[in-house]
Structure formats: structure tokens, C-alpha cells
Write a structure and sequence with these properties.
The protein is an alpha/beta fold and 461 residues long. It is built from 16 helices and 20 strands. Strands 1, 4, 5, 6, 7, 8, 9, 10, 11 and 14 form a ten-stranded mixed sheet that branches. Strands 15-16-17 form a three-stranded antiparallel sheet. Strand 6 (146-151), helix 5 and strand 7 form a beta-alpha-beta unit. Helix 3 (84-99) runs parallel beside helix 4, helix 3 (84-99) packs across helix 11 and helix 5 packs parallel to helix 7 (193-205). It is globular, with a radius of gyration of 22 Å. Its main location: cytoplasm. Keywords: 4Fe-4S, Cytoplasm, Iron, Iron-sulfur, Metal-binding, Oxidoreductase, Porphyrin biosynthesis, S-adenosyl-L-methionine.
């Protein structure tokens, strides 16, 4: 079976469709605790700086002009563009604090602006933010880094895309979710195909290295036929990557979702039909399933990294630069530095108070143990490459695999009987029919999963 031929067994998926982490980190964010301090982070940064190497930067811009009812992101919904000014001043204060901890010569191989809606900022503010970043960190000027930004096409015209290219961005990720007018109205995100196409075409004209499009299945009024029509339009845009996310309806946790009527949501059977048809459609269109809900063209760096065994995973999802320590700035952002994870305070007032007092705005975090390192490596190998070499693990970590992971192997036995995985003394291999359920496979190796509240996570499918 070729790399892209992923079978879809609805009955099997229905049996395994539980809730679980997406493993953008291990331990996951629910293990972060407020006993982690600024002093712990500073010690970790010193450890990172002693080792050296390139950095990855993340900047969180929380503002949105309107609220999308499905959204579960940390955001501030406002039409007052003036609110960006004091927030940027606070980000610059944090940037000065953070950059003082790292050697000025460490190149920034990866940069990402997320949100919220980063293009909520004015053109002058975006120029300023990139310039300030370059004053504090060693940004690459030869277009060799992976510098990406999340785009809402309703907030970015051709002039905006040209500006982003000018200041150094070379990858964009576009939120689309669905082109169906009824779906768009139901989730308060009315976005035309034409304005989306303008952004994509301008990005091509400006020689952006890649365009990614995000879709969501499980939204109100969606059906298989309607979603296939959206995919027809998306393929016209010829994106390099596609993310097809499952909508998790949790109105008790996310207030905007209360505006979505539960009766308008597709049934579980319809959702599975949408997913199965989407996989077949994208395979026929030539895309490779990278993992879970991510697809890419065969010549995309993610697909190449997966074939070459170098694909990684971090808070931005699948990555070719996860070996970099990630310094994240802005409210709610999560850093991964020197063997620790840390998260900034989420509220803007608390963030402001910390940075104006000269403190890193850290709210919580966790130090990674030796056992975490082992299990993170196992989970990363499985979620990125669908194969785990048992002798390699035993040699690298000096463990007896069968003894150390006896509980995990017991859990995987049922999956082996269902032909999701094969287990030999040499390797664990995720079979094509198990790739959509890779989060289930990884959960078997998650030391914390049995103690976690399933409501904190989305459904795996």
C-alpha cells in the first residue's frame, strides 16, 4: 500500500473515537503547574544558551475583529484597533527580558505569528514588530528561515500580503473552515472565495514558499456533499498543505460556542462520512497524510521530512524545526526551552503588570524528567513516522523495552488484533488503517493519561 492510500473503516474508528491529547508537547499542557517559577525558566534558558543552536520564536497576537463561534483560542474580540498599541509595547518589554537570556548570535530558524488574528495589526505596527524582533534576536535576512503567519483573508488584502513578504515572511496559513454560505453564517465567519483567492494568488506572485489552508469538519449545517463542494473550491487554490480539524463542541468551556445550536451539528455518522470522503478526495488529489488531520503535497518539506525520518512535532504542529528551543512571547504563549515548558499569563492585565514590573510573565510550567524525555521520544517517533525501532530505544535510553513499557504493550494488544499496529521484537509499526487513530496509539505510552480529565481534550476523530 502506498504512503497516501489510507483505508477508512467507520466502524473501527467509531469504536476508538475517544478523547485525547494532540501531543504538540509531552508532557501535555495539562501537566503545567503554578509551582514552576521565573527562576526555573531562567535556569533553563541558561542551560539552553550553554548548548547553543538555533531558536524558534512565537509571537501571540490575541486580537480579533469579530468572534467565530467555534473558536477555542485565547483571544480578545474588539473593533478598537488602538488596543494593539499598548499590547505591542508590553510584547517589546517581554522581548527585551527574553532576549537578554540568550546569546545574540543564535540564529532564528523559525518564526511564527499566531493569534487571534495577527493581521489585526496595522501595516506600520507589523513593520515595527518585525523590526523590534530583529533588534533583539538574530533574524535571518536571506529568506532561508521558515517565517510563517496565520492569515484571516477578511483581514488581509493583496497589499497586506506584499507587506508581509517584504518584512520577511515566506509562509502563510489561511483560516477557511468552510466555503458554504449557510455554514459560514451559522459560525459568524462570512468569507468569500474571491477574497481568499486574492490572498493565495498574491502569495504565489510574491514567491511565498508555501500556503496552508485550515478547514473544520463537524460545524453546523455541514454534510458530506456540502463539504465536498468546499474541497472542490479549496483544490482550485492549490495549497501546499491542508489541515482538516475536527470541531469539538464544548459550550460549557467556550462561551462563543453557546451560540451554535446543537441540533444544527451533523450527526456522528455524518461527521465520519465527511472525514472518510475527505481522505479519499485528498488522496486522489495527490496529497499525503502527514498524520492525524494534516495533509501535504509530496514535495512539501513536511512530506520530505517524514520520508527522511526527520519530521518533528511542537506547539505549532508538525515541524521541520522542532530541534530549536522555542521562545514564545505574548499573553498565553508557550515556550519550550532548556528542558522545560512554560506558559505566559493569559489575561492582558496580568501580562501587562508582569512585564512593566520587569518580570517574565510566566504563569505556570513544567520541568521535563528523564522519563518524560524517553516517552516523548517514543510518542514523537510514532506520531511523526508511524514506526518505532525497539532496539534504538533500548540502546539510546538503556532500558529493556518490553519490561519498561509492559503496560503500554498490553494496551496495544487490542490494537494489534484490530490490525492498527504490528508489534515485533524489532519494531512497532502503525498500519495504514491505524494512522487516523495515531493519538490512541500514543496514549498507550503517555504516563499521565490515565489520570487526565478527558473533557480537557478533543475527540481523536
Amino acid at each position: 500500500m502506498s504512503q497516501t492510500e489510507i483505508p477508512f473503516d467507520a466502524d473501527l474508528i467509531r469504536r476508538y473515537d475517544t478523547s485525547g491529547p494532540r501531543y504538540t508537547s509531552y508532557p501535555t499542557a495539562v501537566q503545567f503547574h503554578d509551582g514552576f517559577t521565573e527562576a526555573d525558566y531562567r535556569t533553563a534558558a541558561a542551560r539552553s544558551n550553554a548548548i547553543g543552536g538555533p531558536l524558534s520564536l512565537y509571537l501571540h497576537i490575541p486580537f480579533c475583529d469579530t468572534v467565530c463561534y467555534y473558536c477555542a483560542c485565547n483571544k480578545v474580540v474588539t473593533k478598537d484597533r488602538a488596543k494593539a498599541r499598548p499590547y505591542l509595547d508590553d510584547v517589546y518589554r517581554e522581548m527585551a527580558l527574553q532576549s537578554a537570556l540568550f546569546d545574540a548570535g543564535r540564529p532564528v530558524d523559525q518564526l511564527h505569528w499566531g493569534g487571534g488574528t495577527p493581521t489585526f495589526l496595522s501595516h506600520d505596527e507589523m513593520r515595527e514588530l518585525m523590526a523590534k524582533t530583529g533588534e533583539h534576536f538574530a533574524l535571518k535576512t536571506d529568506d532561508s528561515g521558515e517565517y510563517s503567519i496565520e492569515i484571516d483573508p477578511r483581514e488581509a488584502d493583496a497589499a497586506t500580503i506584499r507587506l508581509l513578504r517584504e518584512i520577511g515572511f515566506n509562509r502563510i496559513s489561511l483560516g477557511v473552515q468552510d466555503f458554504d454560505p449557510d455554514v459560514q453564517k451559522a459560525v459568524n465567519r462570512v468569507q468569500s472565495f474571491e477574497e481568499t483567492r486574492e490572498v493565495v494568488e498574491t502569495a504565489r506572485e510574491q514567491d511565498f514558499h508555501g500556503v496552508s489552508i485550515d478547514l473544520i469538519y463537524g460545524l453546523p449545517h455541514q454534510s458530506r456533499d456540502r463539504f465536498m463542494r468546499t474541497l472542490d473550491r479549496v483544490i482550485e487554490l492549490d495549497p501546499d498543505r491542508l489541515s482538516i480539524f475536527n470541531y469539538a463542541h464544548l459550550p460549557s468551556r467556550f462561551k462563543p460556542q453557546r451560540r451554535i445550536a446543537g441540533d444544527d451539528l451533523p450527526s456522528p455518522a455524518e461527521k465520519l462520512d465527511i472525514l472518510g470522503s475527505t481522505i479519499g478526495y485528498l488522496q486522489h488529489a495527490g496529497y499525503v497524510l502527514i498524520g492525524m488531520d494534516h495533509f501535504a503535497k509530496p514535495d512539501d518539506p513536511l512530506a520530505i521530512a517524514q520520508r527522511e525520518g526527520t519530521l518533528q512535532r511542537n506547539f505549532q504542529g508538525y515541524s521541520t524545526h522542532a530541534e530549536c528551543d522555542m521562545v514564545a512571547m505574548g499573553a498565553s504563549s508557550i515556550s519550550q526551552v532548556g528542558g522545560v515548558f512554560s506558559q505566559n499569563v493569559k489575561e492582558l492585565d496580568g501580562y501587562h503588570d508582569a512585564v512593566t514590573a520587569g518580570r517574565l510573565p510566566i504563569e505556570k510550567g513544567v520541568a521535563i524528567t528523564e522519563e518524560d524525555v524517553l516517552r516523548r521520544h517514543v510518542i514523537t517517533e510514532l506520531i511523526c513516522h508511524f514506526r518505532l525501532s525497539i532496539p534504538e530505544i533500548e540502546q539510546r535510553f538503556d532500558v529493556d523495552f518490553a519490561d519498561h513499557f509492559s503496560g503500554a504493550l498490553d494496551e496495544l494488544a487490542d490494537m494489534a488484533r484490530d490490525e492498527l499496529v504490528t508489534i515485533t521484537p524489532e519494531a512497532i509499526e502503525v498500519q495504514p488503517r491505524g494512522r487516523l487513530l495515531i493519538r490512541n496509539v500514543c496514549m498507550a505510552f503517555d504516563e499521565y493519561h490515565g489520570s487526565l480529565d478527558g473533557q480537557r481534550f478533543s475527540k481523536v476523530i
